[in-house]
Amino acid sequence: MSASGTVSSTAALEVSGIEKRFGAVEVLRGVSMQVAPGEVLGVVGDNGAGKSTLMKVISGVHRADAGNIRLAGHDVAFRTPRDARDAGIETIYQDLALADHLDVGANIFLGREPIRRFAGLIPMLDERKIHGEVAALLGRIESHIPDPSARALDLSGGQRQAVAIARALYWKAKIVIMDEPTAALAVMETENVLKMARQLAAEGIGVLFIGHNLVEILKICDRVMVMYRGRKVFDVRCADTSQTELIRYMTGYADAETNKTEGEYQ
Amino acid sequence: MDQRVAPKPEIETMPRGRAALRFVRQLAFALISIVVLIIIFGILNPRFLSAINWFHITQQVAVIAILAIGQTFIIATAGIDISQGSVVALSSMICAIILVDTHLGMVAAVALTLLLGAVVGAMVGGSIVVLGVPPFIATLGMLAIAMGAALLTTNGTPVFGLPDGFQAISQGTILGVPNMGWIAIVIALIAAFVLNKTRFGRYTLAIGSNAEAARRVGINVPRHLLMIYMLGGIISALAGIVYLSYTAAAQPTSGGNYELYAIAAVVIGGGSLFGGVGTILGSVLGALLMTILKNGTQLAGISSYVEQVILGIVVVGAVYVDNLRRRLR
Fold first, then answer.
1. Handedness of CA B303, B305, B308, B313 (dihedral sign)
2. How does it sit in the membrane (chain B) (predicted)?
3. B12 and A146: CB-CB below 8 Å?
């Protein structure tokens, strides 16, 4: 897999010292990480390792108790998912947040529809613009969506992913979070989605790819970080690691050893 | 990366074709049923087909169509409004009292009645959005509240003696069509524009389709629902005003079953109680079908009690067919 060579000096996203607790439960204990523009970063870890919470902090769903987030070199603080989205962080959800009865174009533009004035006065949807942009977009991502006027309901899982990805592309996201995007897909569709993740990166977007399938992760990511019990315990170029090594960190085996030597584990 | 047999993207030449086909299929059921009913009622009583009867049908369909339009927006959000009938009764009582007992005039009477509708809608919407009461229960409560309030206004007695000018709403005609028919047509055109061509309409369908997705893209779902129910209340009040003109007297117990006609109209017209779907043209055709059923059974000499039984069966049947449609696709 070709890693993109265009890793610029400013990280697309840089988070440092993120802490988050829910009541007595410390879910994130000081996580720092960064993604470069055009880089696909795999995020792996066992259930409950804090991956999802970290992503929710980044995408504005949760507010961190401590730590800060820098987007393209600027400090940001999101109060709502809308803030994060407006700033350029797009999340492609596992359950694919599409409105089933709306067509492809309506879904890509949902919440940000272009408006024109009917009779110079009454604001109405600019359907021509929507359809024009959608046709161009779908061509650009080779989405295999046969008909832009198809409802989301009529699409396959992979095609639904494509709609979400087109949305991220069109709105010029800086960061795209893909939360287990291949979890429910057939083999062929998985290939397509992995390809699209690379395509997003090729457009200069930093991609956070959360997954469980290490074969997939090692194949498409440039780098991978492992989370374990609310910490980042490993961060490595995919070319320099292996499934076995990742699993050692994911299961806490390697972590336990490191922490023992550092004397901070229990 | 390995390029195995990737499916070729088939670019469809007529991108709007599919949407148009969907629309036609949705309306076909209502249209065919209307034709069948016209033939049956025409045979049972030839007077059904007379010009004067169709004038009456146009008057009768107006109220049901206006209510069905309000119901379309609400059902499109996966909600329901079963308080429409008693809101019609309450608003026609209030409008009549203002017309008969005050010197505020017709324009003020209409404006104040519409305002009442907005307040009623805000109460329903508020209990749904703020208190988290499901739409069915919120409007069931409003059904009782509005009915009680309608009876309270005059202690249960009807209001007569409406000014002559007010009758023009129902009795006057333009190009042979009663004015109340034109009111319904204008409301339908505006509603179709709003539902299909504006952000408001798109958000309405999006919320009904997937409220969580709507929330995630930044749509203010509670505010939108509040507006939908206020709009629904205003439309019910408008139906009450038109109904008042048509009946020439305000009855606190009027408006019975109107919500059932409206709900049936929406579902027959292709709307789904699961939300996300619905067209104004479909709902208006559904309203026409329900009116023909009401009018035709009367002319065929079928008792109004039996007509009520039929109404109930039609509502349940229409929703059952809607379920089937969704399961079979």
1. negative
2. Multi-pass membrane protein
3. yes
Domain count for chain A, please give it. 1
Interface confidence, given as ipTM, is: 0.79
Mutate to test the interface with A, among B18, B207, B277 (most CBs of A within 10 A): B18
Is B22 among the domain residues? no
Taking only the tens of pLDDT, chain B with its 329 residues reads 444 444 434 434 344 566 677 778 778 888 888 999 999 999 999 888 988 899 999 999 999 999 999 999 999 999 999 999 999 999 999 999 998 888 888 899 999 999 999 999 999 999 999 999 999 999 999 999 999 999 998 888 888 888 888 888 888 888 888 889 999 999 999 999 999 999 999 999 999 999 988 888 888 899 999 999 999 999 999 999 999 999 888 888 887 789 999 999 999 998 989 889 999 999 999 999 999 999 999 888 888 889 889 999 998 998 888 888 777 65
State how far the Cα of A161 lies from the Cα of A155, in Å rounded to an integer.
10
If one counts the domains in chain B, the total is 1
- CB-CB under 8 Å, B197 with A147: no
Q: Which of B4, B218, B277 sits opposite A111 (nearest CB)?
A: B218
Nearest to B296 by CA among B47, B1, B28: B47
CATH at residue A34? 3.40.50.300
Tell me which residue in B10, B16, B213 faces A99 most closely, judged by beta carbons: B213
Q: Range of B154's domain?
A: 53-328
Nearest residue of B to residue A83, measured between CA atoms = B218
Residue among B193, B210, B279 with most chain A CBs within 10 A, to mutate: B210
A143 shares contact with chain B (CB less than 8 Å): yes
Q: Which sign does the torsion angle of CA B257, B262, B268, B274 carry?
A: negative
Is residue A84 one of the residues assigned to a domain? yes
CA separation for the pair A167, A22 (Å, rounded): 32
Residues 210-249 of A with CB under 8 A from B: none
Would residue B35 count as lying in a domain? no
Specify if B253 maps to a domain.
Answer: yes
- Does some domain include residue A130? no
Rounded to whole angstroms, the Cα distance separating A237 from B133 reads: 52
Let me know: does B129 contact B222? Beta carbons within 8 Å: yes
CB contact under 8 A, A81 and B17: no
| Coil, helix or strand at residue B39 | helix
**Predicted structure pTM score:** 0.82
Partners of B275 on chain A (C-beta within 8 Å) are: 101
Residue at B26 is within a domain? no
Say if CB B117 and CB B238 are below 8 A apart.
Answer: yes
